[in-house]
Write a structure and sequence with these properties.
alpha/beta, about 20% strand, 6 helices, single chain, Rossmann fold
Length: about 180
């Protein structure tokens, strides 16, 4: 019977391990919740512009000299803005509008078809949390993108090219819109 008591002595509970395990699990849970909050609080800044003036109003024509000057002005404004991504449509005029900014920042513009603005909105909301993104669109897609981010804007007239909208989007803080001209 004396040997049996010796075996039971090794099975005694250690009072320090249970509280230590609870503290470790609590710290890990707090770190996970904190990381989630930091990721959710990331504010995405979307700079939304319409392409520059083009030579012809029909078809996929290139930018006019005025449109090229507007594209150069956009590049000067955004070269130190800390852009993380540039999105354009398949149209030549949006790509030419973004080209000087892409060259100044060293970013490669990503092409998303104009009729697929839903895909762009998903990317802006999920892949670019906390980023600064330039989107060059058209008179009919710019209001749709702004509305999808929760910042409705007015209809853009056919001869209006100077609109410059800065939309800040945060899942926890909401959406804010700054409408400018350039």
């Amino acid at each position: 019977m004396a040997t049996l008591k010796k075996d039971h002595r090794g099975l005694r509970r250690r009072p320090l391990y249970t509280p230590l395990a609870i503290v470790i699990v609590s710290v890990l849970a707090a770190l996970l919740v904190g990381a989630w909050l930091v990721a959710s609080w990331g504010t995405t800044t979307v700079v939304l512009v319409r392409h520059g003036e083009r030579i012809q109003q029909e078809g996929d024509s290139p930018l006019s000299p005025a449109g090229e000057a507007r594209a150069a002005a956009l590049a000067r404004m955004l070269q130190t803005a800390g852009l993380d991504a540039i999105y354009v449509t398949q149209a030549l005029r949006t790509q030419q509008t973004a080209a000087p900014t892409a060259q100044a920042t060293g970013l490669e513009p990503r092409v998303i078809p104009a009729d697929n603005h839903g895909r762009l909105l998903r990317r802006l909301k999920w892949r670019h949390r906390g980023d600064v993104v330039l989107v060059v669109g058209h008179s009919n897609t710019v209001p749709l993108i702004a509305d999808g981010l929760g910042a409705p804007i007015d209809v853009i007239a056919a001869d209006e090219y100077s609109g410059f909208w800065i939309i800040t989007y945060s899942r926890l803080r909401g959406t804010r819109l700054l409408a400018l001209r350039y």
